[in-house]
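Support case: user asked for a sample of complex input and structure output to validate their parser. Sending the pair below.
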Amino acid sequence: MEDFNDMVSNWQKQPVPNKGKEINGIVRNAAQNAKTAQHLQRNTIIVLGITTLALAVVAIASQGASALFYTGLTVMLFALLLRIAIEARSIANMKRIGVAAGTLNYAQALKKFYRSRKRIHGILTYAILALYAAGFCLMLPTFRQTLPPSFYNYIVICGIVLLPAIAIFIAIMNRKELRTINASIEELSSIESMLK
Amino acid sequence: MEQDLFQDIYNKFYPTVYRICCGYVGGNSNLAEDLCQETFIRIWENHDNFKGNCMLSTWIYRIAVNCCLNELRKTKNRIKREQLYEPPIGDSAEKQQTDQQVLMQCIGKLCEGERIIMLLALEELDHESIAQIIGTTNVNIRVKTHRIKEKLRKIYVDNFSECEN
């Protein structure tokens, strides 16, 4: 099999599975993909709607509260919206990478996408979490003044326990994701330099 | 696109797309079938974007190769890709299996970029078509194909030619 023609002949003789000769499943899956994308957009709108509604309710219920309280509330909401916007942009960027592009261009676009994901999983996630925590802290003085001491203590303790727990969980998940992203970037770089 | 036309395209190109995917994932037939399915989903979803400025086959193989590249990010698949070659059930010729197993192992020793070019060359695509799929020049592909063929031959000689004798 040293001759390339023998290799070609052997290669083309390899058995191809008989299953999947019907295209109905493929068409169904394509339709399912489109539906999933629509559901994702709808869910994003629902989350945004509920958050805005919750903010409106809190704002109405706490009429006359201090400016610090409203600043905290705005900062928390901004952190949430920022995260949603970043994810939405990332999904849109992924979709924009045309799967029918030349392989070299496709590899470059994928690499660019993974680099942006790296930024999201790196500094941006922690900055947003810090922003969220800051917003929460800004609201605490108002909670102290307006809520019963036992409920206020409950909120503070929850905050002290939950925020670091969330931060640790995010850090573990991020490290895992970053490992995969880095490996993909490395492989894509080697493919790119080979094909160039 | 009419479903009948898509069925014709599917029947015509499935074997080649399957072999490209199979070669890319080191002969893992289950993973190759998944990639093949993904490729045809993309073809169905993107058929409106085919402007006819290249051959249909070129466009389809480009999507197949890009779907394979996309597979990179899935860690589980990365592990599966490293599993040993297992020919699909239904192949009765033992010798043929052995030759293909050897060829698959030789291809597996190429780096991923080389593997992509070699898989297209094994499908007897001309340099111009491969260049269009990759998005580079004919000359570049001609030089690279020549080098990779030599490398593949050397891998075969170094690792497997003794077994044949």
